[in-house]
From TrEMBL:
PANTHER family: GLUTATHIONE GAMMA-GLUTAMYLCYSTEINYLTRANSFERASE. GO terms for molecular function: glutathione gamma-glutamylcysteinyltransferase activity; metal ion binding. The keyword Isomerase does not apply. Keywords: Acyltransferase, Cadmium, Metal-binding, Transferase. This is glutathione gamma-glutamylcysteinyltransferase. SUPFAM superfamilies: Cysteine proteinases. Its EC number is 2.3.2.15. Residues 1-221 form the Peptidase C83 domain. InterPro entries: Papain-like_cys_pep_sf, PCS-like, PCS_N, PCS_N_sf, Phytochelatin_synthase_C. It comes from the Eukaryota. One of its GO terms (biological process) is cellular detoxification of cadmium ion.
């Protein structure tokens, strides 16, 4: 005979009031009438149960990201882009979370990597009155949600540290609704706000720091329009370490006396995995979804991407990078890895195969896809500048599927290896943005004062157009956040001023 296991727990009441009880329903009705349940409906639409006992932080975050309608930019299953616990792995390996849980700093890091705006507060950095104000603001809006990190003991519940989103607030009784993601254990319940503060005002033994809460909302614009850092491949760690730690030490060499030598120092030793670290964001669709026309949304995104790309090309740094890439020694030695990748048809074949894999419901391996009949076309709509459309047929086994890739336009002719007219981001664009995104302290080791001044002028982002500044700062924040997370510093340095 099989042994019986645990089936739920009895919710200790008081202090909690079960959401589905008569009293809980009355609290909901009164709070709804007072306008402090506005965030509830979005959250409840995407309410999920954590799939592992230690996944409370991941479940809470994926629920909030979906409620905010943030596009993950990567597939969940089949063609569907959707946040799931299994996708929140950029700051901590899932197996480690599964066995040890996750800290509030790592959850904040995950939220930033996912493209959300995050403000994180520990209880020793805030007050209960400020917490109440944030609860009221988030409960009165669909545009902001609050996740708490607390200890269950003050609620007389079993277990220890836990994460869950807040679904609403009852002002007269000063109670908050916890949408407990451990629904196999406890149902959603109302608790006194003062008691929740007490539960948050505890020490997380894994970090030695206070617990707290975070506010999560959408950024005013998509976090990544043209460039983004990718941590999907484990190799990102080596590239991040090289850029943040190794480059400043290499630049201390006394042999560096001009800008081209600085670029040689940075790029010559750049790990080969760097191409997997910084990406330009492609628009891929199945051919039957778009025919030969652009939707309004596609046109807007391409126009913005094209504008950012043009702003990159107008910088003096871009000209320096292009000159370095055009040098005979680099071009001949690295033609297969650099110039070939900048050939738009090669890019098209690669991206179309990735698109095929994305739409194939995870069946098969990317190496089994073959792209043929790649065709580059230019769409001209209503007198607008032409848009680049690359079409390709992808063959896998006995099936064949057509894919389109939409590319921002930039009329720049590469000087290297007789490449095509540049209608797409290429190595010089990507490397320019990567240099701009490095911390300003990177260059402080240059001993030649005149050269240091020249480099600082080239790499200053203060006078860049705001659109390009935003793009660069996004990549810089990604690099900073990922490196801190890798070094296990996010919880030690976490404070309310670090907002992205």
């Amino acid at each position: 005979m099989a042994l019986a296991g645990l089936y739920r727990r009895i919710l200790p009441s008081p202090p909690a009031i079960e959401f589905a009880s008569s009293e809980g329903k009355q609290l909901f009705f009164e709070a709804l009438q007072n306008g402090t349940m506005e965030g509830f409906f979005k959250l409840i639409s995407y309410f999920q149960t954590q799939s592992e006992p230690a996944y409370c932080g991941l479940a809470s975050l994926s629920m909030v990201l979906n409620a905010l309608a943030i596009d993950p930019g990567r597939k969940w299953k089949g063609p569907w882009r959707w946040f799931d616990e299994s996708m929140l792995d950029c700051c901590e390996p899932l197996e480690k979370v599964k066995s040890e849980g996750i800290t509030i700093g790592k959850v904040a890091c995950l939220a930033k990597c996912a493209g959300a705006k995050v403000e994180t507060f520990r209880t020793n950095q805030s007050t209960i009155d400020d917490f109440r104000k944030h609860i009221v603001a988030c409960s009165s809006s669909e545009d902001c949600h609050l996740i708490t990190s607390y200890h269950r003991a003050p609620f007389k519940q079993t277990g220890s540290g836990h994460f869950s989103p807040i679904g609403g607030y009852h002002a007269r009784r000063d109670m908050v609704l916890i949408l407990d993601v451990a629904r196999f254990k406890y149902p959603p319940h109302w608790v006194p706000l003062t008691l929740l503060w007490e539960a948050m005002d505890t020490i997380d033994e894994s970090t030695g720091h206070h617990r707290g809460f975070m506010l999560i909302s959408r950024l005013q614009k998509p976090p990544s329009l043209l460039y983004t850092l990718s941590c999907k491949q484990e190799s990102w760690v080596a590239t991040a370490e090289y850029l943040v730690e190794d480059v400043p030490n290499l630049l201390k060499s006394e042999d560096i006396d001009d800008v081209q030598k600085v670029l040689s120092v940075v790029f010559t030793s750049l790990p080969t995995s760097a191409e997997d670290f910084i990406k330009w964001v492609a628009e891929v669709r199945r051919q039957e979804e778009g025919a030969r026309s652009l939707s309004k949304e596609e046109k807007i995104r391409l126009d913005v991407k094209g504008e950012i790309l043009q702003l990159v090309h107008e910088t003096q740094l871009f000209k320096c990078v292009t000159e370095w890439l055009s040098s005979g020694s680099f071009c001949c030695k690295n033609a297969s890895s650099s110039c070939k990748e900048d050939n738009i048809r090669d890019i098209a074949a690669n991206v179309c195969c990735q698109g095929a894999e994305m739409f194939a419901c995870g069946v098969g391996a990317s190496g089994k896809y073959c792209c043929k009949e790649t065709c580059v076309q230019w769409l001209k709509l209503n007198g607008d500048p032409p848009k680049t459309l690359i079409s390709g047929k992808v063959v896998t086994g006995a099936s064949e599927q057509g894919f389109d890739m939409l590319v921002p336009a930039s009329q720049v002719k590469p000087e290297c290896c007789n490449g095509l007219v540049g209608m797409h981001p290429a190595s010089n664009d990507v490397l320019t943005v990567l240099l701009l995104a490095l911390p300003p302290s990177t260059w402080s080791g240059i001993s030649n004062k005149k050269l240091l001044e020249e480099i600082q002028t080239l790499l200053s982002i203060e006078k860049l157009p705001m659109m390009l500044q935003d793009e660069v700062l996004h990549v810089r924040r990604q690099l900073y956040c990922l490196k801190r997370c890798q070094d296990n510093e996010v919880d030690h340095e976490l404070d309310a001023s670090f907002v992205s």
